[in-house]
């Protein structure tokens, strides 16, 4: 459990983190989301006692970071992948960390094995690819087998296989009852990993909500239809009171209907369908809308739980949604 | 093992590390720093080059001096010199200082350069402990290596030049070995402290080498009468002059320090800068 209370950091006149209060609970993956420069890394550095807060506190299981007896056994962090001495071997980079917290040397081999770096354990880490560097950073976070794990942008620069591996690793670690706190600027990535979501923009708390709630509240679902008898289909839908939006490329989009209902309707009227699919508007877009106006949202940073940013409901003007990459299929 | 996404399930228990937790202390930090310093190649390089320079210059100068003295004694001139042969150790000590400075700065500034410092301080949030461990490990390593090398050089020099030079006293022996080792190790410690303050390898090495060599060079060109006192001071207290003073019983320049005194001066300066490094490291964001 990590608790932040009124955490504030100013650099000169610029406020990087502004009265941030939230809790990170054990057993779930908590996503920490915000656009670049929102203050995510500064917040994480303050959590680890690397930066001194201007005001406010961070408590880890009720204690200040500095008061943890052997911190690596409570909390492991991946801040940036290259935060290792490149001239040192992967093994020795981990060994010196282990020694400072009296972690048995055997554990170094274990974590290297866990992240798949055993074959290059004796190689200098400066020759590592970005993906290998991330794995080494994750190995160092896991070294003390800690209760809390913090990952700052762990999927940055990873190949699809590496991304998949990190996702599953985080979920597995959370399932063991650990507290997982992971930052990202990619909503789509968070949607696949996180159970709980904390969104910040310009250092302020914008949302502290479960992923399921966030999706429900911020995504517009609609049905996409394609037919060689487009005119007839449109008439049928209109006749049944549905609002039909022409989305280009001969497809129609219908809000507020299920695929079952529309499929049955088409069958009753003998309309041939080439496509009938449920679509969900991209969460990325909902997230961008939420953070774009970050400045306007004051006073939502102090409520620790259930603080719901009054972010605009997703709703671009009908017909603007012709970008084939923006909507994601519901089944995905 | 995997929890389904989008369905937050409160785990029945919070995970607790199976590795027993005790309060970490300086000993753990020392072990960690020892692993760090022995596992980078720059340590081997700087110390290796330092040993070679000390041996080559110390013995080379002694050999040349011995040869020229013998040549003179065959001409029937007075052969004996008043000083002992140990003073030739100075010629290896000056370039050795550059190696020690580099290693001292790199010991901490490379952590800032690579970002390793964040990992280090996350593992050991007591910053004073980290700096203390680095300082102790660095000082002991450099002191041991330089003292052993200086002792080898001193023994060889006395063997080469001894018959035509004064017999070194016990105090001279001690200063030429442990004294020289301590002086270089302190100079390295000063570099380490400066590296902590500047947090940039190239910057801190440049400042330290400037501090080592510039006072003499600047003094050399202070030809004006009006600057005479400044020139005198620079010549007396420049680090190379202090190294020479370490080898002699009498002040070699004016009424400046001699014998063990240069070591005490350097120790004082290092203590002050190291104190500043501790204070700043504790208060600064990483």
TrEMBL record, chain A:
Keywords: ATP-binding, Nucleotide-binding, Transport
InterPro entries: AAA+_ATPase, ABC_transporter-like_ATP-bd, P-loop_NTPase
Entry GO MF terms: ATP binding; ATP hydrolysis activity
Pfam families: ABC_tran
ABC transporter domain ranges (all copies): 2-227
Domain of life: Bacteria
Region of interest called Disordered, as start-end residue ranges on this chain: 303-332
PANTHER family in UniProt: ABC TRANSPORTER, ATP-BINDING PROTEIN
Family: Belongs to the ABC transporter superfamily.
Name used for this protein in its record: Multidrug ABC transporter ATP-binding protein
Organism: Streptomyces viridochromogenes
Top-level taxonomy: Bacteria, Bacillati, Actinomycetota, Actinomycetes, Kitasatosporales
From TrEMBL, chain B:
Presence of keyword Endoplasmic reticulum: no
TM region positions: 44-66, 86-109, 136-160, 180-198, 205-224, 263-281
Keyword field: Membrane, Transmembrane, Transmembrane helix
Keyword Repeat: no
Source organism superkingdom: Bacteria
Alphabetized Pfam families for the sequence: ABC2_membrane_4
Name of the protein in its database record: ABC transporter
Lineage per the UniProt record: Bacteria, Bacillati, Actinomycetota, Actinomycetes, Kitasatosporales
């Amino acid at each position: 459990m990590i608790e932040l209370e009124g955490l504030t950091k100013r650099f000169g006149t610029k406020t990087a983190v502004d009265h941030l209060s939230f809790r990170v609970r054990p057993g779930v993956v908590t996503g920490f989301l915000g656009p670049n420069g929102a203050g995510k890394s500064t917040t994480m550095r303050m959590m680890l006692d690397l930066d001194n807060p201007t005001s406010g506190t961070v408590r880890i299981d009720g204690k200040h970071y500095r008061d943890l007896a052997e911190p690596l056994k409570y909390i492991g962090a991946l801040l940036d992948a290259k935060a290792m001495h490149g001239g040192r071997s992967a093994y020795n980079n981990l060994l010196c960390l282990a020694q400072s917290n009296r972690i048995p040397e055997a554990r170094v081999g274990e974590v290297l094995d866990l992240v798949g770096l055993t074959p290059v354990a004796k190689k200098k880490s400066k020759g590592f690819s970005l993906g290998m560097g991330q794995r080494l950073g994750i190995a160092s976070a896991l070294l003390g087998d800690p209760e809390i794990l913090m990952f700052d942008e762990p999927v940055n620069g990873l190949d699809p296989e590496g991304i998949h591996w990190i996702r599953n690793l985080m979920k597995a670690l959370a399932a063991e009852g650990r507290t997982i706190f992971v930052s990202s600027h990619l909503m789509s990535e968070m949607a696949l990993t996180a159970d709980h979501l904390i969104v910040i923009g310009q250092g302020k708390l914008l949302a502290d909500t479960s992923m399921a709630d966030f999706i429900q509240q911020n995504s517009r679902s609609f049905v996409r239809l394609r037919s060689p008898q487009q005119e007839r289909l449109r008439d049928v839908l209109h006749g049944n009171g549905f609002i039909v939006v022409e989305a280009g490329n001969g497809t129609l989009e219908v809000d507020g209907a299920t695929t079952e209902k529309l499929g049955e309707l088409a069958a009753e009227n003998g309309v041939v369908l080439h496509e009938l699919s449920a679509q969900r508007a991209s969460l990325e877009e909902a997230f961008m809308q939420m953070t774009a106006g970050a400045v306007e949202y004051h006073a939502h940073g102090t409520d620790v739980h259930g603080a719901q940013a009054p972010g605009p409901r997703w709703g671009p003007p009908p017909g603007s949604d012709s970008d084939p990459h923006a909507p994601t299929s519901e089944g995905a | 093992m995997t929890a389904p996404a989008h369905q937050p399930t409160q785990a029945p228990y919070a995970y607790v590390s199976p590795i027993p937790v005790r309060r970490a202390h300086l000993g753990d930090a020392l072990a960690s720093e020892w692993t760090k310093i022995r596992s980078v190649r720059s340590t081997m390089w700087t110390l290796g080059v330092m040993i070679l320079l000390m041996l080559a210059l110390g013995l080379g100068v002694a050999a040349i001096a011995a040869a020229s003295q013998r040549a003179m004694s065959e001409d029937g001139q007075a052969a004996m010199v008043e000083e002992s042969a140990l003073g030739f150790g100075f010629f290896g000590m000056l370039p050795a200082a550059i190696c020690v400075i580099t290693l001292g700065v790199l010991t901490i500034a490379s952590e800032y350069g690579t970002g390793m410092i964040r990992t280090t301080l996350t593992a050991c949030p007591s910053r004073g402990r980290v700096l203390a461990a680095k300082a102790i490990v660095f000082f002991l390593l450099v002191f041991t290596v330089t003292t052993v090398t200086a002792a080898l050089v001193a023994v060889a020099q006395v063997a080469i030049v001894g018959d035509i030079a004064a017999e070194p006293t016990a105090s001279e022996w001690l200063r030429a070995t442990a004294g020289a080792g301590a002086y270089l190790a302190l100079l390295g410690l000063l570099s380490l402290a400066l590296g902590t303050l500047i947090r940039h390898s190239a910057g801190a090495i440049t400042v330290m080498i400037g501090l080592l060599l510039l006072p003499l060079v600047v003094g050399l060109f202070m030809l004006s009468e009006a600057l005479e006192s400044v020139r005198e001071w620079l010549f007396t207290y420049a680090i190379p002059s202090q190294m020479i003073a370490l080898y002699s019983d009498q002040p070699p320049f004016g009424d400046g320090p001699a014998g063990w005194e240069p070591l005490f001066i350097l120790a004082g300066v290092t203590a002050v800068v190291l104190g500043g490094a501790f204070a700043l490291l504790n208060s600064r964001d990483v």
